[in-house]
Q: What sequence folds into this?
C-alpha cells in the first residue's frame, strides 16, 4: 500500500513537471541515477562503507570467540572420558545454557547496532547525495532526477535510456562537494 502511494506521489510530481514544461513549451529533461552506486563509487561513500564493514568485523570477532567458548564448553560436557561428578556436570550444563542465552542476546544486540549504523549512514548520505543530484540537475537543465534503485530495492524507474543515467556525474559532484 505504501509503495503504491509512493509511486502515485512520484507519478503526480512527474505529471506536474511535465505540465509545467508543456505550458512553458520547453523540452522536458529527466535523468536517473543509482543512489547506492553513488555511495559505492564515491570516495566518501567508500570510506563510510569501509567504516561499517570494520565495525561489523570487530563485532564478528567477538561473536566468533563466543562461539568457540560455547563449543569448548559443550565438548567438555559431552566428553565421555570426563570425570565430572553429576552435580558438576549439571552446573556446567547450566553454565552452558546461560552462556547460550547471553550469546543470543549479544548476537541480536550486535545485529541491531549494525543495522542502526547502516540506517544512520544511509540517512546522512541520502541528503548529501540529493544535494549533489540537485546540483547536477541544475547544471545540466534537468527538471527531475529519479533514483532508479537496484535489484534489491523497490524500483520506481522500470526502464530508461542509458543516456539518461547521470550516476557518474552525481558521483563526481558528490565527491567534489565533500572535499
A:
Amino acid at each position: 500500500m505504501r509503495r503504491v502511494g509512493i509511486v502515485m506521489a512520484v507519478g503526480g510530481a512527474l505529471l506536474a513537471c511535465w505540465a509545467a514544461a508543456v505550458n512553458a513549451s520547453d523540452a522536458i529533461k529527466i535523468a536517473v541515477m543509482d543512489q547506492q552506486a553513488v555511495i559505492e563509487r564515491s570516495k566518501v561513500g567508500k570510506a563510510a562503507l569501509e567504516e561499517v564493514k570494520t565495525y561489523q568485523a570487530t563485532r564478528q570477532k567477538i561473536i566468533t570467540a563466543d562461539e568457540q567458548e560455547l563449543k569448548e564448553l559443550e565438548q567438555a560436557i559431552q566428553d565421555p572420558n570426563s570425570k565430572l561428578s553429576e552435580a558438576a556436570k549439571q552446573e556446567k550444563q547450566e553454565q552452558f545454557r546461560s552462556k547460550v542465552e547471553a550469546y543470543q542476546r549479544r548476537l541480536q544486540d550486535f545485529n541491531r547496532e549494525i543495522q542502526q549504523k547502516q540506517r544512520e549512514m544511509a540517512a546522512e548520505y541520502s541528503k548529501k547525495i540529493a544535494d549533489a543530484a540537485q546540483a547536477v540537475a541544475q547544471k545540466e537543465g534537468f527538471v527531475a532526477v529519479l533514483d532508479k534503485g537496484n535489484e534489491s530495492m523497490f524500483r520506481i524507474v522500470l526502464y530508461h535510456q542509458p543516456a539518461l543515467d547521470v550516476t557518474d556525474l552525481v558521483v563526481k559532484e558528490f565527491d567534489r562537494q565533500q572535499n
Notes: The beta strands are 30-33, 144-147.
